Amino acid sequence: MEDCIFCRIVRGEIPCFKVYEDERVLAFEDINPISDGHTLVIPKAHAESLWEISEDDLAAVHVASKKIGQAISEALAATGVACLQLNGRGANQVVMHYHLHLIPRISGAPPLPVSNWELKAGDMARIKSVAEKITAAMR
User: Fold this and answer.
1) What is the CATH number of the domain that holds 111?
2) Which of 13, 14, 69, 79 is deepest in the core (most CB within 10 A)?
3) H helix intervals, 4-54
4) Which of the residues are catalytic?
5) Which domain holds residue 58?
6) What does the pLDDT profile of the chain (139 residues) look like in tens digits?
7) Beta-bridge mates of residue 27
């Protein structure tokens, strides 16, 4: 896609701090990092979201993410790595090109709001009803 910032990075029109590249995947440092080592892993082929990405590219992104996540953990002595992937503006996806955030967690760092919520028991009848709706919509 011509005006997609991530496609422009893939084409070399915009510089990045590359940490990994293969025939399907590019990974680079986020320039608005949540923590040191915050890395974005993208398919080279444009796909806006989880619903558009090819299965082969999706698999390639996640296989690469495993390698990159291990390297992040080792290089930064991370106690964990949060994997965050957003789909659509309603989920606050800003760049409309599929990407997976790898966010290193370092001991003593503040919690990530998306991974730190209060556990409250749900309404089992409602949970069952929603599960049935999702199952019925599966193709």
Assistant:
1) 3.30.428.10
2) 69
3) 5-10
4) 99
5) 5-137
6) 789 999 999 999 999 999 999 999 999 999 999 999 999 999 999 999 999 999 999 999 999 999 999 999 999 999 999 999 999 999 999 999 999 999 999 988 888 877 777 778 888 999 889 999 999 998 7
7) 20, 41
